[in-house]
Amino acid sequence: MADNNDTTDTESTLSNARRQLERAAANVDIDSGVVERLKHPTRVQQVSVPLRRDDGTLEVYTGFRAQHDDVRGPYKGGLRYHPEVSAEECSGLSMWMTWKCAVMDLPFGGGKGGIAVDPKTLSEQERERLTRRFAEEIRAAIGPKKDVPAPDMGTDSQTMAWFMDAYSMQEGETTPGVVTGKPPSIGGSYGREEAPGRSVAIVAREAIDYYDWDIEETTIAVQGFGSVGANAARLLDEWGANIVAVSDVDGAIYDPDGLDTNDVESHDERPGMVSGYDAPETLTNAELLELDIDVLVPAAVSNAITVENVDDVRAEMIVEGANGPITFAADTVLEERDVPVLPDILANAGGVTVSYFEWLQDINRRTWPLDRVHDELEAEMLKAWNAVRAEVDERDLTWRDAAYVVALSRIGEAKETRGLWP
Predict the structure, then answer these.
(1) Which residue windows are coiled coil (predicted)?
(2) Which of 58, 251, 350, 410 has the lowest CB atom count within 10 Å?
(3) Element (H, E) at 382
(4) Domain termination site, one of 167, 186, 205
(5) Which of 270-274, 322-326, 348-352, 386-390 is predicted with the least confidence, judged by mean pLDDT?
């Protein structure tokens, strides 16, 4: 994808991230050189990953690891297996991880990586071999004190287990802290998988309260009833909100009286269950975005809301569950319409926050119970929420700009304190 500089909706993830940075920098007293530096990743590694297929043939895939900025700590970010993984996409996503870690005040910088492959075309044995070889190819660039990957699109806790084992075997010692998102049996944290959805729900709850809405009268639609969307919807349902629509990749279901989110199985639990559920109405994913509701949670894919469909979005508030679900141009339209958008770098930051908890547990070789993970996540999310809310109130900024102000202020202070070497 091209790094466009116009205002069209064809911009790449990297272009979108840079636009958001430039806009936010105008609200922060930060050196222009620091801003220019933050437009570019520190390094992007590209590797060839050979795989012996089950039928004996050999295929070579391309892998990447982008490391954006480590002024506040080791690089941190997911590994995704998807055909469209590229150096440019990883660079843009690593930038978002830098902001996300800073807005949460975590001692990490941003990283992102993956392999350009469709994991659905691989057997489990092939995925394991591919993962282990990828771990070896990027081993010199990662480590508990350097760069800590995690699961992302197309990868899961088992992928992280293979990755950690491959790294540990080559290093000659078990190193659980090299990745997060592992199964608890080998150093993973309880509550990690549901953490992004849980933080989306917490931010939605706080925003509903901020605008003096009654949560029990609030209607919510969730695009993408997967790990993030399902956990967010179920928690908001538990707190009294009215979840009227959810969707998976095949379509959406709608009930104006509210769905029983615990009765609807997520796409991860049973693919096709959402669109096949017995609900009063079925909709397309596009139609879900156009519902007349209070809160819309786009938790499926990037660029779900663009200039082509933003005028049809009727929600009173949007809480971003996916990374980059709204393009820069569409975001500008929503701002002009005074539709609050709670940004991804705050709303879905529960994933990296509990990854931080997992990293701490691995370093200290001590496991936290689930209740402690939930309590600590709630505390961290409220601390970040209050920091962003203070900027909204004091400067009359959008929620996205306020989150960037918080993040950039912390990054700028760290860079100024450390200085430039040599």
Answers:
(1) none
(2) 58
(3) helix 370-395
(4) 186
(5) 270-274
56-101 confidence digits (pLDDT tens): 999 999 999 999 999 999 999 999 999 999 999 999 999 999 999 9
* Rg over CA atoms, the chain: 21
CA distance 179 to 369: 20
Token pair for residue 326? 């709204």
Q: Which of 321, 376, 373 is nearest to 349 (CA)?
A: 321
Residue appearing with tokens 């009765």? 263
Collect all residues with Cβ–Cβ distance below 8 Å to 403 and sequence separation of at least 6: 99, 103, 343, 345, 346, 388, 391
* Residue 234: domain span: 195-347
Q: How many CA atoms lie within 13 A of 413 on its CB side?
A: 8
Give the number of domains in the chain: 2
In CATH, what number is assigned to the domain containing residue 54?
3.40.50.10860
User: For residue 88, what is the enclosing H or E element?
Assistant: helix 87-103
Question: Cα torsion for 178, 180, 184, 190, to the nearest 10°?
Answer: 150
Q: Does some domain include residue 70?
A: yes
* 180-227 residue pLDDT tens: 999 999 999 999 999 999 999 999 999 999 999 999 999 999 999 988
Active site residues: 112
* Residue 5 located in a structural domain: no
User: Is residue 238 domain-shared with residue 169, that is, in the same domain?
Assistant: no
- The DSSP letter of residue 70 is -
Burial pattern 377-399, b for ≥16 Cβ within 10 A else e, equals beebbeebbebbbebbeeeebbb
Q: Select from 300, 331, 347 the last residue of a domain.
A: 347
User: 332: which residues sit within 8 A by CB, 6+ positions away?
Assistant: none
